[in-house]
Amino acid sequence: MKYSRIADAYKKIEATTKRLEMTDYLVELLKQTPKDLIDKVVYLTQGKLYPDFIGIEIGIAEKLAIRAVAKATGHSEKEIEEDLTKTGDLGKTAQNFSKEKAQAQLFRELLTVQKVYGDLDKMAKSTGAGSVDQKINLLAGLLANATPNEAKFIVRAVTGQLRLGIADMTVLDALAIAYGGGKEARKDVERAYNISSDLGMVAKTVVERGIEGLRRFEVSLGDPIRPMLAERLGSPQEILEKLGGKCIAEFKYDGERIQAHKQGDQVTLFSRRLENITDQYPDAVDLFKNYVKAKDAIVEAECVAVDPDTGEMRPFQELMHRRRKYGIKKAMEEYPVSLFIFDALYIDGEDLTLKAYPVRHKQLEKIIKQNDHVKVAEYLITDNVDELERFFEKAVESGCEGLICKSIAEDAAYQAGARGWLWIKYKRDYKSEMTDTVDLVVVGAFHGRGKRAGTYGALLLATYDPDEDSFKTVTKCGTGFTDEELNKLPEMMKKHRIPHRHARVKSTLKADVWFEPAVVVETMGAEITLSPIHTCAVNVIRKGAGLAIRFPRFTGNYRLDKSAEDATTVNEIAQMYRNQLKTLAE
Ligand code: ATP
Predict the structure, then answer these.
(1) Do the domains 229-426 and 438-585 sit in the same CATH topology, yes or no?
(2) Per-domain residue ranges for the chain?
(3) Is the pTM above the cut of 0.85?
(4) pLDDT digits (tens, 9 = 90+) for 165-211
(5) Which residue's CA is minimally distant from atom 22 of ligand 1?
(6) Residue of the nearest CA to atom 11 in ligand 1?
(7) Going by CATH, does the domain composed of 229-426 fall within 3.30.470.30?
(8) Mutate to test the pocket of ligand 1, among 248, 251, 253 (most ligand atoms within 8 A of CB)
(9) Which distant-in-sequence residues (6+ apart) come within 8 Å of 319 by Cβ?
(10) CATH 2.40.260.10 fits domain 438-585
(11) CA 137 from chain center: how many Å?
């Protein structure tokens, strides 16, 4: 397959702001792709070579890429850099310089997808002495044979700046249409993705074994399952009603979510974002190895920092000291952890994800050998409002955030990758005004004036709408940043900058600068109000009005552990608005 097919498709995708059009171009590309390349083409369209959890990135520093462009085009690095300051995009610069060369070189070698993927893979895996030269040579080799359009996308891919904005969900739509027989296949395609987190493998399965093959898809050890998430409500009454009068309530521990895959003595840990974090927690690895009694298992736990002297739970922030590459042994002593296990998704050959929660919970209790550092999450099965409230108070008193109340219905399966009403969180601070923080996505910015000239005066922040897979604005936030943070912002956001509003962002405001939705900031507000401007929850509370956060303030926390799709949702904001009204009326 010619690489130009991919590059041509990218060109069209890049030019559109319409999601449906984007999907159409992708469908066209996937249909043109031979079976044995489908997974590679899928990874490439997302600027990747493998699924994220494998942890291999193309990632080449801009400096090296400049050297390769210079080498391939016969220009000096200085010339390339000068052009780069004008374009702000090394891909564009590479395109400009290969344009010049186009007439001169008639006998270039045709680039195939196999060749491009293979060389990118070599670049990604090349380490140690001589790797810098090897990377430059490989890249320069590709660029020397590339058309200008191909050069643009190759350079963007290797520098991690492809930014086509093709979300996972768009790929799933395209696969369903191209190979599943139409949109109806979307459910099966999505489930396979949700339990494997590997778009390439899903693509390969549907292409090779059709929709039937997808339906037989099961969880497998080593492939992380996308996490099930909770909705929220503000009172035990509402929660019990929603869950059919009875539920299993569990402490909501304030730590880091870990999905452990145990295969004999081999344990792999995945974060909430499905990154492999095994090396970060050798102590947790040992705990899973020694106290999960099944030979093979996939279990989920909240990993909580505990006081080494008292064993009491410590706040989430302390766990951040464990996010490091070096000095792990010392951090382990200073910030030991305990595990509170709350789900079992696979045990000794059996996929449990479609089993009801009570069944999974029973299985879980059977395989966990509890001790000081490994416990099944504390729980209570109840149909009583007062009992639930008291259990909630107990959770808060023990240092938890509140409760997660779970459905005990027969069809309460593990909803991988979804935020649904089978799990409902009840957190401590909903009872007052907006005292809870929200996690919002930076989608745009406005130029600053006066003291803030040269940087941003405010950021345009958005909530996530999972139904539409889009981002809806909810506030403009310019407070809470230190001067130093402000000065760093333009540089920090540079790699996410795009020339127009992102196709998945819905905004009536015109920002001065637009970003792809990627960075999540924790924000605190005074209250939520109806808004004629913002697009969050439009028509949900009142016809024609959206919701906005008033007096927002950045708390100083970049939620690096969250992707844009993990941001607070429009439904959560609407629910917070309703709760807030209730409180005021009380
Ligand atoms: P928040 O910012 O409120 O933690 P979130 O978006 O990170 O929200 P939610 O879906 O709101 O995640 O809450 C579920 C999270 O709570 C899980 O991801 C998990 O990390 C944590 N948690 C703690 N205890 C439990 C439990 N017993 N069962 C399920 N999840 C739990």
Answers:
(1) no
(2) 229-426, 438-585
(3) no
(4) 888 999 999 999 999 888 889 999 999 999 999 999 999 999 999 99
(5) 252
(6) 230
(7) yes
(8) 253
(9) 255, 256, 303, 304, 305, 335, 337
(10) no
(11) 33
